[in-house]
Amino acid sequence: MALAAAPVAVQPANATPALSANDRRLVDLADAYEALDRRCNEHTAAHRYDHTSETDDEFDVLTTGFGPLEEECAVTPADSLVGVIAKARLCLSPTARGCADNEHAFSIADDLCRLQAMGGLHV
After folding, report:
1. pTM for the predicted model, two decimal places
2. How far is residue 51's CA from residue 117's CA, in Å, rounded to a whole number?
3. What's phi and psi for 112, nearest 5 deg?
4. Which structural domain, as residue segments, surrounds residue 44?
5. Is residue 72 part of a domain?
6. CA separation (Å) from 14 to 10, 11, 29, 80?
7. Is 81 among the domain residues?
8. What is the SS3 assignment for 99?
9. In 10 A of CB 115, how many CB atoms?
10. How far apart are CA 17 and CA 12, in angstroms?
11. Percent of the chain scored above 90 by pLDDT?
12. Please, which residues have CB within 8 angstroms of residue 123's CB and are 6 or more apart in sequence?
């Protein structure tokens, strides 16, 4: 009597691993931040030669959107390198680099140290 082989679940090579809720949120925040940064750059390019108090006010309204995204990113713990990389994406923005606030850098460092201590940092 031959034994049937147990089925093996094979995941397609291009399948994306499931993300935790925190990592998914961090990726979404990074996407939103990059979209806002693009809108700010587009606004600046469109009004390069027509600076008015109205266009400056429009830009100020746009840039107020960065704070809440940055704050939520900083307080959301990453569960994997995907989340840490999402946090790091915020730091790539020229708009972010122009700020003196280092909450993101500290948050990334905290996550890396925590993940390493938990044995969850796999490269």
Report:
1. 0.71
2. 51
3. -60, -45
4. 21-118
5. yes
6. 12, 8, 24, 19
7. yes
8. coil
9. 19
10. 10
11. 33
12. 81
Two structure tokens written together for 36? 């806002």
User: Based on C-alpha coordinates, what's the Rg of the chain?
Assistant: 21
Which token pair is 28? 């979404």
Number of residues that make up the chain: 123
Q: What is the pLDDT of residues 76-86, one digit of tens each?
A: 999 988 898 88
Give the CA distances from residue 72 to residues 31, 65, 75, 90, 117, in Å, rounded to whole numbers and listed in that order. 13, 12, 5, 12, 23
Domain count within the chain: 1
* Distance from chain centroid for Cα 2: 53
10 Å CB burial of residue 83 (0-12, 13-18, 19+) is: buried
The contacts of residue 42 (CB under 8 Å, 6+ apart) are none
Report whether 91 contacts 74 (CB < 8 A): no
Is position 13 within any domain? no
- Kindly state the tokens that stand for 73: 């990113």
Q: Is the pLDDT of residue 121 over 80?
A: no
